[in-house]
Amino acid sequence: MSEGNAAPGKTPGMKVTDKVMIEMKGVNKWFGDFHVLKDIALTVKEGERIVIAGPSGSGKSTLIRCVNRLEPHDEGSIVIDGIELTEDLKRIDEVRREVGMVFQQFNLFPHMTVLENCTLAPTWVRKMADAEARDLAMSYLERVRIPEQANKYPGQLSGGQQQRVAIARALCMNPKIMLFDEPTSALDPEMIKEVLDVMVELAREGMTMLCVTHEMGFAREVANRVVFMDGGEIIEEAPPEEFFSAPKNARTKEFLAQILAH
Amino acid sequence: MAMEDVTGRPSPKIGMRASPVVWARRNLFSSVGNTVLTLASLYLLWLAIPPVLDFTIFSAVWSGTTRDACLGPDKGACWPFIWANIGQFIYGRYPADEIWRVNVVFALGAVALVPALIPSAPAKRFNLIFLLIIYPLIALVLLAGDRPGLRPVPTSEWGGLLVTLVVALTGIVVSLPLGIVLALGRRSSMPAIRMLSVVFIEFWRGVPLITVLFMASVMLPLFLPEGMSPDNLLRCLVGVALFSSAYMAEVVRGGLQAIPAGQYEAARAVGLSYWRTMGLVVLPQALRHVIPGIVNTFIGLFKDTTLVLIVGIFDLLGQVRAQLSDPSWTVPQGALTAYVFAALVYWVFCFGMSQYSNFMERRLNTARER
Question: What is the complex's ipTM, to 2 decimals?
Fold first, then answer.
């Protein structure tokens, strides 16, 4: 929290340790006959920030949804912070407690206030006392800069505010890993920045992050690696400087030409 | 203001400011067709309302102690007949010197129910636990009296409004939770549970309630060993409760289907278990969506309780019909009076439920401001 006014780019505090947080090996998944993930191998270390890019339908969302088993994988192994994801519900819940997720459509609970959205999981899953959960939630709402909205309902907030609440809600579980599934794709352009700012801050604090996003500026600024997917495969994996300036694969080049053309 | 007009909501201010003449011209006589419809409606109302008011109020007999008061030409409703039999209508054949027990049950129920229905009343959790768990036990002990110091009153002596309320409230209290469980079961990912739920729901929905009651009352004892047959009223209660649960399950399922998958995912992603996801995130939203359907089922159930008449249980309507054969009160307009009375009682209960559901809907919607 205390790097001061850090310049964009790789800043101090963004240190990567040797501890492996996510290890995917030989992961395959099918939706019916459709082979959506093909032999995925991906290792993410503690403090690493990975941006996953690729055309729509390339399996990026499915990939990160496998990390907290919102989608079960059919083959291969996924180990999160030492816990292998299997059918075992106990282990799945254990992993979900440590992995926060932010969705494209925010998915806030509309019948609860902003504060209740944030305190729900800490009180019921972590068995935190009400007052403690409240303080925790307020501190995260301050960090995403909307403490004044705590007693409103999600329907009364703008998209950007809702997405920041969703980030605060995930952070309230003190997760070790944060997953972002196209967090800015459903937002009006003027609201994208407020959400990205929060995500950049989070990255600077050393959070392990896995982001599916089309925001290439964000990738340049905070990512350790950009993973490019197409047709359910990881085509290329490189640090952002290399990824944007010297892509190796033809499909990566084509994709970059399309999204950077304007 | 202009924004509201665009959404199609008429601005309330305009309606309030307009004079009655202007209002009538705008709403009742705006075109030839509209004028014809207005006049036709007025004619129908003129045909229907005066005779009803005349029978029930203006020509009605309000006081008297025997049937003689109601005899004579142009006499309307015979209300003294109702006053004279009000005890039977409320308590049935419940022993006269034990009626205080029924009154205690009624009073206790009212005392517990009213604060439970007021959203801002304190101690809601205790209130509901009392109302849904402790109160039914107290009511059972008091009404049946199967305890030392209380004279047992067999259910065959219960009747009237007491039975109507016992059947309806048991049905309502059992059908909502059971309906929710069945609805969740029908959407379960476990095939065995899903199958069981589907079979249960489709079985009970496919059978008429009368058949259920006949089976419970007449057939069931034949299959059970001598002396093991449970109480007739109890058998009907179980039948009504299971029957209405099946309907409730489908209403609740409709609400569950309206909840986007993202809500389940978000709840699971923060680590909530299946039951907490359902109980804290999905059901509160789903049930809100289907309040009209739930109350609709309650109201239908309340009126369907009259069918217990067919298996020899005297609910309010049954008791009203029974009193009609009382020779000391045979007057020509007796049946009509009695049915108007019964209809009025049912209407008060059903209208009350409907109004309460409207109130809750408005309250929940303003709280959320969707």
Answer: 0.89
